[in-house]
Amino acid sequence: MSLLLEVLKDEVKSIGAALFVLMLLIVLAASFTYLAEHQAQPQAFGSIPAAMWWTVITMTTVGYGDVVPVTVLGKFFGATIGIMGVGMVALPAGLLASGFSGALRRRRIEYEELVQDALEDGQIEDHEEEALEASRAELGISAEEAELILGAGLRKSGVRIGVCPHCQKSLYTRRQSDRSGERRDSDEPAPDTTP
Questions:
Q1: 136 and 73, same structural domain?
Q2: Segment 12-58, tens digit of pLDDT
Q3: 168 domain residue, yes or no
Q4: pTM of the entire structure?
């Protein structure tokens, strides 16, 4: 919910401008339709506000069919209003989608900066890990995405996971098979099996 409110707050000017243009188009389209249809259908298009009903229903592509233009000019306005309506209804949806994308990107960048701050000393301590987890939850970043960001931060900072920062030896011992099929620790040299 906070993401939605953040997006609406960021896009309020754009959405307001789109709604203003939509209202302006409704008034203009209703006026032109009234002029085109009033003489042919005085009951259906008796006034500009009555024509606004038809304009809104046409622009939102609902199309109840209770009022239909009969003149050539009225049908032309109807087709034009229908096409404009698709674009005008899609415009706020595009603005919101763009806003969501931007807000998610900003949250990801904020988390990346927190990871870089935590990695300044070359390791992530317990209190830093707890703070990162709290920030991840607060920012709405998934655990998988946080792991990817942490991995990228580790690669970028040059910190090697599982390697002693002092002697550069592996902190883990992996069991591997040598050519003879025997299992050995990865830090042990392989036995010489050449004849």
A1: no
A2: 999 899 889 989 999 999 999 999 999 999 999 999 999 999 999 99
A3: no
A4: 0.60
